[in-house]
Amino acid sequence: ALGNAGNGKVLSVQISPNGRFVTFSDTSSNLVTDDRNNFADVFVKDLSTSQILRLNLSSTGSQANNDSDLA
Fold first, then answer.
1. Which of 18, 21, 44, 52 is most buried (CB neighbours < 10 A)?
2. 51-58 long-range Cβ contacts below 8 angstroms, 24+ apart
């Protein structure tokens, strides 16, 4: 996590049963480094460490070419 408030909009949210992880889709481009695809992405935040990871990358690290949302 970059420590910034998102500059976009949260589209959906899910919280893990133990309350540690929050998974969300968001249109922000400033939550992780190098988010340049201009689409909604799926993230997970670990509330114990404050780390945010983007989940909707390909196996080679390529960014999505369309909006992503929680299933």
1. 52
2. 51/1, 52/1, 55/23
Label residue 54 by pLDDT band (50, 70, 90). Answer: very high
Instruction: Judge whether residue 57 has pLDDT over 60.
Output: yes
3-state secondary structure 20-37: CEEEEEECCCCCCCCCCC
CA of residue 39 relative to chain centroid, distance: 11
Of 1, 3, 52, 63, nearest to 23 by C-alpha is: 52
Q: In the numeric block, which tokens belong to residue 55?
A: 């989940």
Q: How far is CA 40 from the centre of its chain?
A: 8
Which pLDDT does position 5 carry in this prediction?
86
CA–CA dist 15, 13 (Å, integer)? 7
